[in-house]
């Protein structure tokens, strides 16, 4: 039997199973909360608080959808449920997204604990140092897309629709799929500095590669911004591209610092 870090292969499989079950349990509990519990504002001695109540017909997932609808869908567009299961699918998709999002600290912790025995002390330190920044960058990218990019995208797309037909309708399931995919994509895009630092630390890419090829990176970033933002004004493209250029510069300086730190040890 193969031994790794004092544990057999089957021991590692059992360890992975136990940690996966913990992650699924946390996500499952949060999922049930998001589809069964409603939060309402209340005041206690003049202090505003959030009051949770059981409400299967208007839970947090539905409340979250209502906020998305108010923030992103242009005026004049009506949402229309096309099938009997559309509403419940929308609720489940949002609840699943929220449960994974709120369980992310537990997911990162459990995965880190599973990987730690197979890593050297230096690698464990790097993993710990960048796990929280990676989570923060993902959330920042998703929030940035929600606040600044998606409103422009929906407004542009439905301006075309308004010129095509008199009445415009939006399927809630398609709206949720498009929005969540967009948020997830931006969250991943904002992981650029982590990708740069990680590849430099592992020796996959030389640290000076990032400086030598910054022009190609800038072109690729602007193309990426143009492709995912279909409005013709260029404003949204700049809103996407400029922060990513800043992240590229940040990733380069962090890569240099990590490389120098590795050489000094």
Could you characterize the architecture of this molecule?
There is one protein chain. It contains ten helices and six strands, in the order ββαββαβαααβααααα. α1 packs antiparallel against α4, α3 packs parallel to α6 and α9 runs antiparallel to α10. Strands 1-2 form a two-stranded antiparallel ribbon. It has a two-stranded antiparallel sheet with strand order 3-4. Strands 5-6 form a two-stranded parallel sheet. The chain has a domain of 133 residues. It is mainly alpha-helical and 265 residues long. Helix content is 72%, strand content 10%. β3 and β4 form a beta hairpin. The model has no long low-confidence stretch (mean pLDDT 85).
Strand content: 5-15%
Quickly count the helices. Answer: 10
Shape: globular
- Give the radius of gyration: 23 Å
Structural class: mainly alpha
E-strand count: 6
Spans where pLDDT lies below 50 across 5 or more residues: none
Q: Strand order, biggest sheet?
A: 1-2
* Major beta sheet summary: 2 strands, antiparallel
- Listing every helix as H and every strand as E from the N terminus to the C terminus, the arrangement reads EEHEEHEHHHEHHHHH
Mean pLDDT: 85
Please bin the fraction of helical residues: over 70%
């Amino acid at each position: 039997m193969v031994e790794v870090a004092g544990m057999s292969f089957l021991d590692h499989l059992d360890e992975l199973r136990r940690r996966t079950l913990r992650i699924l349990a946390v996500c499952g509990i949060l999922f049930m909360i998001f589809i069964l519990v409603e939060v309402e504002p209340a005041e206690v001695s003049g202090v505003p608080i959030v009051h949770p109540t059981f409400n299967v017909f208007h839970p947090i997932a539905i409340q979250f959808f209502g906020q998305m609808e108010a923030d992103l869908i242009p005026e004049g567009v009506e949402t229309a449920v096309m099938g009997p299961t559309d509403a419940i699918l929308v609720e489940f998709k949002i609840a699943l997204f929220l449960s994974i999002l709120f369980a992310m600290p537990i997911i990162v912790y459990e995965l880190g604990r599973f990987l730690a025995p197979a890593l050297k002390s230096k690698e464990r330190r790097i993993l710990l140092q960048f796990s929280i920044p990676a989570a923060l960058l993902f959330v920042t990218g998703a929030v940035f897309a929600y606040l600044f990019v998606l409103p422009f995208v929906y407004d542009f797309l439905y301006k075309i629709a308004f010129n095509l037909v008199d009445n415009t309708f939006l399927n809630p399931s398609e709206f949720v799929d498009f929005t969540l995919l967009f948020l997830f994509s931006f969250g991943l895009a904002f992981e650029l500095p982590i990708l740069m630092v990680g590849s430099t630390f592992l020796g996959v890419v030389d640290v000076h590669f990032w400086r030598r090829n910054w022009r190609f990176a800038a072109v690729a970033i602007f193309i990426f911004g143009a492709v995912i933002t279909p409005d013709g004004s260029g404003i949204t493209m700049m809103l996407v591209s400029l922060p990513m250029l800043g992240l590229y510069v940040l990733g380069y300086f962090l890569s240099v610092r990590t490389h120098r730190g590795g050489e000094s040890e």
